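Just wondering, does anyone understand what follows?

——
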Amino acid sequence: MKNLKNITTAIVAVILFATSAAAQTVKPAAANEPFTVKYIGNEEDYLYFEVEINTGNSNFAMLKINDKEEGELYSQSLRKNLKPRTFKIEKKDGQELNFKLLSGNKTYSKTFSASTILVEKTTVNENDVVIL
């Protein structure tokens, strides 16, 4: 009976170790994304975003930033991977910003909506869209 408990404990330990070892080797999904946009914060009347683009094998890409109310705020064609860039965008109440990367035949989009109703707090929500 004691041997059966020891064998069972050893099997459970091996299964737990194998599960945790496998979980550590999985790469995060963000590492494979060609386009990341991170909301950094706000200062006075501006929102700050960090954009990192990894075009990979694609020779051409285009980054566009649109405001729902004002239209296109920024547009630039890109050739290869770039260092992360910080964008300073004037904040407005009920603002909706769309960051779009056109790379090859794929379009990647991240949308942020900002609410400035509170005096010292700005809430930003993010949505991801990939169109194939």
